[in-house]
Structure formats: C-alpha cells, structure tokens
Amino acid sequence: MKIIVCIKQVPDTTDIKWTENNTIQREGVESIINPYDVYAIEEALKLKQNLENVEITVLTMGPKQAESILRQAIALGCDKGVLISDKKFAGADTYATGKTIASAIKSKLQDYDLIICGQFAIDGDTAQTGPSIANQLGIPQITFVKELKQCDSSSICAVRQIEEGFETLKVEFPALVCVLKGIEETTRPLINGFIKAKNACITTYSMDDIGLTPEDTGIKGSPTYVSKAFRPVHNREKCEICENCIALAEKIKEFGGLNIE
Ligand code: FAD
Fold first, then answer.
1. For FRET with 243, which of 73, 115, 127, 234 sits at 20 to 30 Å CA-CA?
2. Cα angle 101-105-110, degrees, rounded to a multiple of 5
3. Residue 94 near ligand 1, beta carbon < 6 Å
4. Does ligand 1 come within 6 angstroms of the Cβ of 95?
C-alpha cells in the first residue's frame, strides 16, 4: 500500500502576528509539524506496523525550511520526503494550495492508494485543504476520522466522529482521509530514526516540475482576498447573564439576530 501524508509547518505559538498583507507572520517564529498532521503520520505508521509492503511518503508545500518537518516525519518512521517549494507559490489560499498539492501528486506521485491529511492546521484552521486536494484529484474523501482500519487490499475503513457518536465508513482506494486526534499515544523517534532522517534525500519540486503556471498558483491563482485580520477584543464589562433560554432568545431578538416566535 502506498500512503501519502500531507503535513504543514506551523508557528509554535498562540501569539499569532500578522504581516502588512494580512498573512501570518512566520519569520522569526519557531515552527513545528501541525499537531493534527502528527496524528496523520501516526495513523499511517499504524497501518505500516500491521501490514506488509506499506510505503509512506510525507509531503509538504512550503519554503525551503519546511524540509525540517519532513526529516522529523522520516525520523518517526516515514520512508520518503517530498517538498513542493517555489517563490511563485507565495500568497496561495486554500484553493491554490489544494491545487498545487494535487498537481504534484498527479504529476509525480500518481501511484498511491491513500492520502492522509490532518483535519485542521492550527494556524489557518480552515479544514479546507484536504477536501480541496480530494476534489481536485477526483477521489472520495472522509473527514473527521478518529481511526483507520484496513478492510482488504483495495479499501480502508474509517471510524468517523459525528454529532451522535461514531460511524464507520468503507472507501475504495484511491481515497483521502482527514484525521482528528487519534486514540493512541503518538510515536517518539528512535535514535536510528534520527540517523535515517539526517541522511534522507528530500525530493523538491518547483512550479515548472509539476506543470503549473503563475496564474494557477500563489497569489494570482487564489480567489480569496483577506481584507482584514484582527484579534477580537473581549469586553467582559458588557457581559450580561440571561436567567433562562427565553430571556436569552429575547436578548438575541433585541440585537436583531434571530426571528423567534
Ligand atoms: P487546513 O485546511 O486547516 O489544513 C488541513 C490539512 O491540510 C493539514 O492538517 C495538512 O494535512 C494539509 N495541509 C494544509 N496546508 C498544507 C501544506 N502547505 N502542505 C501540506 N499539507 C498541507 N500561507 C502562507 O504560508 N504564506 C502565504 O503567503 C499565504 N498567503 C495567503 C493568502 C491568502 C489570500 C489566503 C486566504 C491565505 C494565505 N496563506 C498563506 C494561508 C494558506 O492559504 C493556508 O495556510 C493553506 O492554504 C492551508 O490552509 P489552512 O492553514 O487553513 O489548513
């Protein structure tokens, strides 16, 4: 089975700062693997432990320094690292990011069975990238996955969190899943993992390599425009406690929020 795990480098801070273009300030901030992507790696490693002939490729789209998270993933037990990197990708929104990753998979990694993404990235937090990749590849997707189980050689069973509890879905390969925090503890790298990671060759693809033009990606290929980004101010003095739900509904009505009878 060939698995691709999509991982994103995110700032290791909750004190997010913005650039003048309303994008996240990443320079000078320590970076880590997006925590949900660590669970994605964990699910892939579990399949590798339990089955024969599983190969895991970790993939990230980002600047040159994002190579470090690919090496960390290799230290954890993944087999190969792919970096999609080009200055022309700068300013990509989730649509352009999904398109760029999907184009890299289509052109360079087409022999895959399963793509595993995190459900959210802790910085952008849209949860759109995984579904966008699946959509652009034309493959089925399952989101909010808690656990993966192999069904047979051509499909996977995903335990999915829903409002009422859990449901299990079976999907034929090729497919994409987005995972939540798993049930088990995450793996720690062993010393030979660090050695393998240090010596690993990371394959890098540029915009030309994956057959895109500047109009397809980066700021030009991004339909989203961020007009303003701000931290909401909490004014606790203006807090009002409603005694019951009728009083709460009245209050919402007063602010024009709901049409309640
Ligand atoms: P989510 O959709 O919440 O992530 C879900 C999962 O998708 C992750 O867990 C991971 O598995 C996968 N994933 C997400 N991103 C990647 C990735 N890069 N590589 C591999 N897997 C991934 N960001 C910048 O860094 N630089 C910019 O210049 C920039 N400009 C932007 C301009 C605009 C107009 C907008 C709207 C956004 C911009 N962003 C930029 C943010 C960037 O679009 C998002 O960070 C990116 O698309 C991922 O979205 P997200 O963070 O919401 O991830």
1. 234
2. 170
3. yes
4. no
In this predicted structure, what is the pLDDT of residue 193? Answer: 86
Nearest by Cα to 128 from 172, 106, 158, 97: 97
Q: Does any ligand 1 atom lie closer than 6 A to the CB of residue 92?
A: yes
* pTM score over 0.85: yes
**Bond into 174 cis (ω within 30):** yes
Is residue 195 in contact with ligand 1, taking CB distance under 6 Å?
no
Which of 43-57, 210-224, 233-247 comes out lowest in average pLDDT? Answer: 233-247
Q: Which residue has the tokens 């937090």?
A: 125
Q: 11 CB under 6 A from ligand 1? A: no
Distance between Cα 16 and ligand 1 center (Å): 15
- Measured between alpha carbons, how far is 125 from 102 in angstroms, rounded to an integer? 19
Cα dist. 232→122, 189, 216 in Å?
Answer: 18, 39, 33
Residue nearest to atom 5 of ligand 1 (CA): 120
Q: Which has more confidence, 131 or 50? A: 131
Q: What is the CA radius of gyration of the chain?
A: 21
pLDDT higher than threshold 90 for residue 8: yes
Cα of 107 vs centre of ligand 1, distance in Å, is 21
